């Protein structure tokens, strides 16, 4: 048993609440245990300059943590005048993950910006953000169809993400902060509803991990993401 009593293949309590923002075309408040992320999708009738005239749209993401998302107050990155490397890496990951399941030609020359703001952090903020961002994006697509802007949903599949790691010599699913900070290996998996792998991020914090351990983590992630996709389907139904 893990420090919080979970089995190795057991996720924290997961919830997704859609339509939580009055103004955004799509929104979702996602909770992975004590990690809470607000995701909003905003529609713009424009695309970046390099895409103009090409007939395709764009999906991008921004990510940030509120000052008291963690135990001690963090300075807002805006007040420092620049984003950290971690923030840039995570928001690019979110954007890549969402674009992997979007038919950009069906979207037309429009941009959807998905903002993921971490209200409270306890490990797995990027995986929660990706999972909730898909729900916000789905709601935005539904809005566009209801407004007659598009005739078919540009979303081609679900996408979700989960963390895994090797803690005390055993592979476990959905690490919280305590586990993440002590893991011998930690990894993030982004996968589609049909089982396709979008991205794998894996790091050995000490001794290298084996191919068999990687396979064990992938198996855990596949099961967890399948359950996340089922919850996404229930949320947007």
Automatic annotation (TrEMBL):
Catalyzed reactions per annotation: tRNA(n+1) + phosphate = tRNA(n) + a ribonucleoside 5'-diphosphate
Swiss-Prot/TrEMBL GO biological process terms: rRNA 3'-end processing; rRNA catabolic process; tRNA processing
Entry keywords, A to Z: Nucleotidyltransferase, RNA-binding, rRNA processing, Transferase, tRNA processing, tRNA-binding
Primary enzyme class: transferase
PROSITE patterns in alphabetical order: RIBONUCLEASE_PH (PS01277)
Function, in words: Phosphorolytic 3'-5' exoribonuclease that plays an important role in tRNA 3'-end maturation. Removes nucleotide residues following the 3'-CCA terminus of tRNAs; can also add nucleotides to the ends of RNA molecules by using nucleoside diphosphates as substrates, but this may not be physiologically important. Probably plays a role in initiation of 16S rRNA degradation (leading to ribosome degradation) during starvation.
Protein name per its UniProtKB record: Ribonuclease PH
